[in-house]
Design a protein that fits this description.
By secondary structure, the chain is an alpha/beta fold. Helix content is about 40%, strand content about 20%. The strands form four sheets. Strands 4-3-5-6-8-7-14 form a seven-stranded mixed beta sheet, with helices on both faces. α2 (about 40-50) links the parallel β3 (about 25-30) and β4 (about 55).
């Protein structure tokens, strides 16, 4: 059950901040970088009003390690940044995954590599879905495509983080973060704000057994057992995959795209449909775990595929892995630094549809 309120008109960045507050986020640790600055700016006042704490850390590295500490104490906490800043947070994210510490991390992807620019891009897909830090680990990754989804998936991110004791990453970009759309805010009911009571480090035992949260396993075989345990957890997430399918039932060609590019591709698909051409859209919402089974089902129906990304080719690997025993996918890159329109996507879609 949820409580809904009237619609409001907000940026994607603000929607994420509002979603975090609806999910009872109590601590925010951040450091400024464009194009995500609206999130810490909003949180700097609103989380205080909600009875929480805001810290502008001295660096991205510090912010991520503060998040690690808050999560280990069972506190619902979040940080946000953009590409180079997220890169600096990777060591702490690896520690959170290895220690099974819940946390929410937001990346409003900007152009790269290096400092790149402050415009939109999707060059952080590998980093976001492969475990961008050291060691073998994964974290749950969500890719919203609308401002409403940005709000909804932030609430979901906190739920997943504490249910599965994992960092959860929300991967947006400058389009989503700066775009304004109407949303309907809602608040989940019966949030268990003491969800970490059975494992969290509280600083006092009260007679209970001593607790230890760590990612260091030096005993013979201990690290192997921990990695086996973590992999089993990641495998269990396959039941939580989510994707939008638009006009896929009778489509000859399926365009695969996520996030902002997914919604731009959807506009192109609509135009093809008006012209009587059988094109559909498959937009993954969970980027890790990737909705492979749903995509393979479409491949088994004899459909062809074109992956479009705002990078030089990253998600296309997951598309091809999903359908590899049945089909393949063509690929069309949108180079970071360019801002695509639906019209620009029509030519590569048409060529693929015509087998060229």
């Amino acid at each position: 059950m949820t409580k809904k309120t009237e619609r409001i008109f907000v940026k994607g960045n603000e929607a994420i901040a509002r979603g975090a507050l609806a999910a009872k986020c109590k601590c925010f640790f951040g450091y400024p970088i464009t194009p995500q600055n609206d999130i810490p700016e909003f949180m700097s006042s609103e989380i205080i009003k909600a009875g929480g704490d805001f810290v502008q850390a001295e660096s991205e590295i510090a912010a991520a390690n503060m998040l690690l500490g808050a999560g280990a104490a069972g506190v619902r906490a979040m940080t946000s940044s953009s590409s180079p800043g997220i890169a600096l947070k990777q060591e702490a994210i690896s520690y959170m995954a290895g220690s099974e510490v819940p946390a929410v991390v937001v990346n409003m992807n900007r152009g790269g590599p290096g400092l790149g620019d402050i415009g939109p891009a999707q060059g952080d897909y590998y980093q976001s879905t492969r475990g961008g830090g050291h060691g073998d680990y994964r974290h749950f990754t969500l890719g919203p495509g609308t401002v409403q989804e940005a709000y909804d998936l932030t609430i979901k991110a906190f739920d997943i983080a504490f249910t599965h004791r994992t960092p959860v990453l929300i991967l947006g970009d400058a389009i989503l973060g700066q775009m304004k759309e109407p949303i309907t805010p809602w608040e989940p009911e019966n949030i268990d704000e003491e969800a970490g009571r059975d494992w969290a480090i509280t600083g006092r035992t009260g007679g209970r057994e001593k607790r230890l949260i760590k990612s260091l396993f030096l005993e013979e075989g201990a690290l192997a057992e921990q990695n086996k345990h973590l992999q089993a957890k990641y495998d269990s997430w396959k039941d939580l995959t989510e994707a939008e399918q638009f006009e896929t039932e009778d489509a000859d060609l399926i365009v695969c795209a996520y996030g902002s590019i997914g919604r731009i591709a959807k506009s192109a698909v609509r135009k093809f449909r008006k012209d009587g051409k059988k094109v559909g859209l498959f937009r993954p919402i969970t980027l890790y775990p990737f909705p492979s089974d749903e995509l393979k089902t479409l491949a088994e129906q004899g459909k062809r595929f074109l992956t479009i990304e705002h990078n030089l080719g990253q998600m296309v690997d997951d598309v091809r892995l999903a359908i590899r025993t049945v089909a393949d996918s063509d690929f069309y890159p949108i180079y970071p630094g360019n801002l695509p329109t639906p019209d620009e996507l029509e030519e590569p879609i048409l060529k693929c549809l015509e087998g060229k």
